[in-house]
Every structure is written in C-alpha cells, then in structure tokens.
Amino acid sequence: MADTVTERYRKERPGSWARWERACRVIPGGITHDGRYLTPFPLYVRRAAGPRKWDVDGQEYVDYWMGHGALFLGHAHPSLVEAVQAQVGRGTHYGACHDLEVEWAEWITRLVPSAELVRFTMSGTEATHLALRLARAATGRPKIVKFTGHFHGWHDGVSAGVNPPYEIPMSAGIPGAVLGEVLLSPPNDMAALERLVGSRQDIAAVILEPAGGSAGTIPTEPGFLKDLRQLTRDRGLVLIFDEVISGFRYAPGGAQEYYGVTPDLTTLAKIVAGGLPGAAVCGRREIVGLMAFGEDTGWNRAQRVAQNGTYNANPLSAAAGIAMLSELANGKLHDAANARGAELRAGLNDVFRKAGVACVAYGDVSIFHVSLEGSPGAKAKDPDLYHKWRCALILQGVDMSAYHGWVSAVHGEREIEETIDAVARAVRDLQAEGAL
Q1: What is the pLDDT of residues 181-238, one digit of tens each?
Q2: Are 381 and 373 in contact (CB under 8 A)?
Q3: Both 178 and 286 in a single domain?
Q4: What digits encode the pLDDT tens for the residues 280-298?
Q5: Mean pLDDT of 298-320
Q6: Which residues contact residue 149 at a Cβ distance below 8 angstroms, ignoring those fewer than 6 apart?
Q7: Pick from 310, 328, 346: which residue ends a domain?
Q8: Is the peptide bond before 165 cis (omega within 30 degrees of 0)?
Q9: Are residues 71 and 198 in the same domain?
Q10: Which of the listed residues 166, 173, 188, 204 has the most CB atoms within 10 Å of its CB?
Q11: Domain at 60, CATH number
C-alpha cells in the first residue's frame, strides 16, 4: 500500500522534522506563531527570493505565505534590501526622533484616505489596541462592537467572537470583565447591528476588517460598508477599519479607497512596514490628535491618550516602509498582482471541477481563499483535512496558509502555471487516500 500524504511528508522533510523536535525542547509546541502550527510538524525555510523560497532540505516552493501577506513586492526585493542595508550602517535605534519617521507618516497620509495624523506601533495587534483606546477616549464610552469571524490581533480586548463557536474566546486566560466590554454582531447583517446600537448608549466604536473577516475568508457583502458608515456617523460611533491585511493591497489607499468608504480610524501593519516589524494607527485629526501633549498639565495627565513603545517607528522599519510605499504608490503593481490573483483562482476552480471535488477557490484582488467544504461557510472546517491539504501542497512544491494565500507583484505566469499543476497533483494524492 502506498504511503499516505502525511507519511510521505515525514519521510521527505527530515530536516524540518529534526529542527521541530529540537524547537519543542525550548519553544512551547515548537512554533512561534499559532498560524504556523502544522501536523505532523511545520516547514523550516532557509532562504527566499521573489515569489519562491527554499527549505532546509533543499526543496523549492512557490510561496503564497508572502510574509503573512506583508511582502507585496515578493521576498528580498532589491529596493527594500538596499534601503534596509543602508540604514543598518547609520544606526538601528536612535532613542530619538528621526527624518524617516516623518517621511514614512507623510507617505501614509498621502495614500490612505482617512489618514490625517499617524501614530506608529510595532504590530497590528498593538495598532488595534491603540485604536480602541483612542475611540473610547474620544467618545467617553466603554463598549466596542466587533463582528463574529473578524480577527483584530491577539490582545484581550478583541479576543471574543473570533472562531466558532463564537461564545468561546480565542484564548484561555482572558478576564470575563474584558470580554464583557466587547459586543458581538453577525457580519453583513445591518438589521442586527442597528438593533444592537439602537438599544445602547455606551458604544464607542465599531471595528471590522473591511474586506471581510479572517483576511476576507468571510467576504463583506456589497453595500454593507456604505450602510455601516452612515449608521456609525448617525449614531456618533467611531468607525475603525482594520486594514492590517487589506491596507495597500486592495489599492494604494487600501480597502477604503477600493470600496470608496472612509472610516474614522484605520489600523495598518504588514505592507506598511515593507514586511519588517511595524504598524500604525491613522485617522481623523481630532481623534488621533488626542495623543499630542498640550500646555495643560492636568489634561496631559488625565485625558491625553498615552502610548509608549521602544521600537515605534524604528529606523529599519521606516526605511523599508518608505521603500515599499514608494514602489506601489501609482497602482500599476496592483494591476499585475490582481490579474495573477484572478488567473490563479480560475485555474484552481478548474482543477477542482475536473477532479469532481467540492472545493472552491474565491477571493478578490491578489488574495485567494480555498474552502475544501464547498461554498464558504457551508459546513464546519475539518482541521485535520486542512493539515493534510497543506502537506500535500508542500510535497508538490507550493506553500500557503491552510485557508488562503497572497499573490505578490512578482508572481508571474510561470508561478501560476506551476501552482495549478501542483494543486492538481495534490488533489489526486488526497483523493487516492480518500481524504477528498
């Protein structure tokens, strides 16, 4: 009897297996990001360039992780490498203000419609944390509305309603009092949201991923964002777009430019820092401006929104961010990446149709999602199946997240063709053992 996909994966990736066993002795579970959890063990990568990467066993892959969506220009893009290398020689941490942070903020205000002022953080989680603090300070109200299935980082304040069953928070160790400050509403259901906000006077803000929950896995329905913008404006609520994934990918100005809806606050990460650690909150002057020191010491102490952060606007991240944003500002790279994304989604669906499996590829712009159960949300996902799916793809020379992937501006016809062929082989392998 032929080896299963999982058995082949164990045999053909011995270097990754050995490193994972070593990692388990010093790192809980042997991983440093929950998204890298893979059974029987995760893939270890040695180097990457353009749309490709190579693992510790010397195997080559077409990559669709793309730095969790951060590497719109692909791995090790020359302009980013040059910018970061030049900055390392000038210093990596000044403990002072510097020109690059100002230029970086200017690029953001130039591109993002909502950005009148910008404040930097180091991660998307920090950015959403700060955005909620700003919204509460601006309104004097405590409650935040978020939509089920939408992800806004791992801090306590947004850990409710992330994964089904939604009544269970995404992590242990979160106080009930914190969870009680978050009000959940179903996505794309304006009537439910109207009932919720109409019944309370203590809501500060509504936060969402504008392109859809879980990086677009739960797509936003047409017209919902415009109705949401009107509702929040009428009710005096702060509208927060979490554009950590969609920022600068849907358009140079993000999903808010793409959909023509401008929020009050926007959180950014990933692409904004060129794939290096770095993030930002931007938005209306009267809200983000609550962080500025004033002449009134009493106001500074009790009413100003405070935020520290040793690595905020780190010079290396700023240099990479400027290089990234200057490359994509004219939108031409988006046209190329979006075309490749559409080509890949169509090719995957053709593979699934010919194989007679219920799988579906969907998405927008340069993002693609894969549902192995048929239409998105048709039934609960089987984690074991998605682990086999990833292993099958890896064995065929493609690496992507379990549910979705990001096409970069440097993925070409060759990569798309190789990927479609690889997926066809992976599907056949999983069918042979009865998994699909």
Answers
A1: 999 999 999 999 999 999 999 999 999 999 999 999 999 998 999 999 999 999 999 9
A2: yes
A3: yes
A4: 999 999 999 999 999 999 9
A5: 96
A6: 161, 162, 163, 164, 166, 187, 213, 214, 217, 218
A7: 328
A8: yes
A9: no
A10: 204
A11: 3.90.1150.10
